[in-house]
Amino acid sequence: MLSTTLQEALNKQVKHEAASSQSYLAMASWCDIQPGLQGVTEFFYQQSEEERQHMLKLVKYINERGGMAIVPALEQPIITFPSLKKLFEEFLKNETGVSESINDIVHLALQEKDYATHNFLQWYVAEQIEEERLARTLNEKLEMIGEDRSGLYLFDRDILAYRTSISKGDGGHRH
To answer: Which domain holds residue 81?
Structure first.
């Protein structure tokens, strides 16, 4: 059985994951109307769906443990960006914020000696390491590219491969 404190913290995380999903959906929509960003558009549609799955996993866990998951109301996400670089900076900022929130809940679970929740959250800890690495890698690549259009073309073409290579643990290097 979840404590009230952990239930509240996990429901707060449900909201973080839902807000991330909405933010990435808004990013995908913005990219979709920019010329030549089909890869980045697809990347953010996939990110949005992934965050939704993270939210659902939390909802099911809360309910499974005798708590009550709350489907949250969400604020309007940012819908326009001055540049692709700013969009990816926001992506990294969001991922580091999610990591901080997960870490806080892990700490709370240990304080309360709720080892089942601590164990459940380890998947999120590992996932956030991967997500932050991906976001940092993509920001670094955009920094290197600057405004070079051929570089942006290659970045857009290769972005889905970066996602795959990061999850395989090779740091985003193409083979």
So the answer is: 4-167
Task: Kindly state whether residue 173 falls inside one of the protein's structural domains.
Answer: no
pTM to 2 decimals? 0.92
Q: How many domains does the chain have?
A: 1
**Pair of tokens at residue 125:** 């800890």
CATH code of the domain covering residue 122: 1.20.1260.10
Domain membership of residue 174 (yes or no) is: no
Closest CA to 28 of 19, 41, 46, 47: 41
Alpha-carbon distances of 108 from 76, 111, 121, 131, rounded to whole Å: 29, 5, 11, 22
Instruction: Decide if 172 is inside a domain.
Output: no
Q: What is the pLDDT of residue 127?
A: 96
- Enumerate the H helices of 33-114 as residue ranges: 38-64, 84-111
Give the model's pLDDT for residue 174: 41
CA atoms lying within 13 Å on the CB side of residue 159: 26
Residue 64 belongs to some domain of the structure: yes
Rounded CA gap, 87 and 91, in Å? 6
| DSSP secondary structure, 108-169, as one string | HHHHTT-HHHHHHHHHHHHHHHHHHHHHHHHHHHHHHHTT-HHHHHHHHHHHHHHHHHHHTT
Instruction: Give residue 125's Cα distance to chain centre.
Output: 12
